[in-house]
Amino acid sequence: MRVGIVGAGAIAKVHVTQWLKLPVTYVGCYDRIPDRAEAFSAQHGGCTFASLDELLANVDLVTICSHTDAHKEAVMAAAKARVAVFCEK
Question: Per the confidence metrics, is the pTM higher than 0.90?
Fold first, then answer.
């Protein structure tokens, strides 16, 4: 299973740490702020994706770790792309 993360803030660090312990392939992350996504990838590995659609095209499951006000957009895009979603709240 290929896993990606939307949002590269504090909670994403918790999620990626746990994904890396499981028998899944962590692919990378997307964040609206490219520098934050680049820093996250430099620290945790994986690719940095330029868009949410690009990330969704490369994963089977996505963890939504963005700010709460961005959850709906990411969840709906993942559903449309037929990607499984893990989203808190």
Answer: yes
